[in-house]
Amino acid sequence: MSRIYNFSAGPAILPEPVLEQAAHEMLDWQGTGMSVMEMSHRGKAFVSIAEQAQADLIELLAIPDGYQVLFLQGGATAQFAAVPFNLLGDHQSADYINTGSWSKKAIAEARQYGDVNVVAEGANTDPMAIPPQSEWKTNANAAYFHYCANETITGVEFPYIPDTGDVPLVSDMSSTFLSRPLDVSKFGVIYAGAQKNFGPAGLTVVIVRDDLLARASEQTPSVWHYQRQAQADSMLNTPASYSWYIAGLVFQWLKREGGLAVMAERNERKATKLYAAIDQSEFYRNPVVPEARSWMNVPFVLADDQLDATFLAEASNAGLETLKGHRSVGGMRASIYNAMPESGVDALVEFMADFEQRNG
Ligand code: PMP
User: Fold this and answer.
1) Residue 150 contacts by C-beta under 8 Å, 6 or more apart in sequence?
2) CATH code, domain carrying 302
3) The whole model's pTM is what?
């Protein structure tokens, strides 16, 4: 068996010990004689898996009392609609900041259900940046304020949590969730698809503050109705049970590794190394201002895009896979989630230097 370094943005690399444990438990989960995939979601065994995963996540993020933690389906894209359905209530509109492609998609979806006030646009500058909060045209009566904490495609990440006063803060954290400690008490809603930093596709974690549960519109589909799902322990219908189980194994792995403070240290170190390699060279370039650079997704372009195909082919020969940038921006992108070992970043940096030497 040989494993590559997988820099995919998602579905993405998972910790090897998690995959090994899942393989070990595949045919017979802890003496039940069944795979987790084959279990009734209402049975004792799966309910214990689900509850443990939830408890471990609460512990990892130190989620305070007064929040519900939901394990839903439909991806972050479903949440683009679920958020306005659940939170608009009697309000006229919601505030959104546009910092890139995923913000834009969230905005377009929300516009189908209510009025959206875009407080600022940060996606069109070169280098890309997050407009300072002093320039945001916010509405004090907004139903909520939505931002994408980390734009997976362009690698623009908020280095701070916006202060929105009494307006509930909502964040799409899909590609940065669990990359570092987080003060959950600052948020009304946090959502994240699992397939980047904590599991297989098909599962979305939603963390909702209790006082927001009563706002849902009557048209809210039941599967995305936060209050109904909370009352049903996220099992209003059949959940993504296997993905939930794997996410639980990832949470246990994170705890064994020392928790999110340790992850933050590692992630910062990995990202710093890669950005330093890019900045030191005349051959590679990252299009984001240093203070808004993502720890998780590092896009870069080569000075000569004619070399892109050769770069990717040679990287692949060196065991460095899925480095092609998103089709909308081109170039390269290295996603370096929690499960990417530092040795993977070292191997990439070494390959980049060698490639530059031969082609620069
Ligand atoms: N938001 C962000 C930040 C993402 O990176 C993605 C997936 N790439 C999405 C939303 C959409 O997620 P999903 O495909 O799970 O609906």
Assistant:
1) 156, 157, 158, 173, 174, 175, 176, 294, 296, 297
2) 3.90.1150.10
3) 0.98
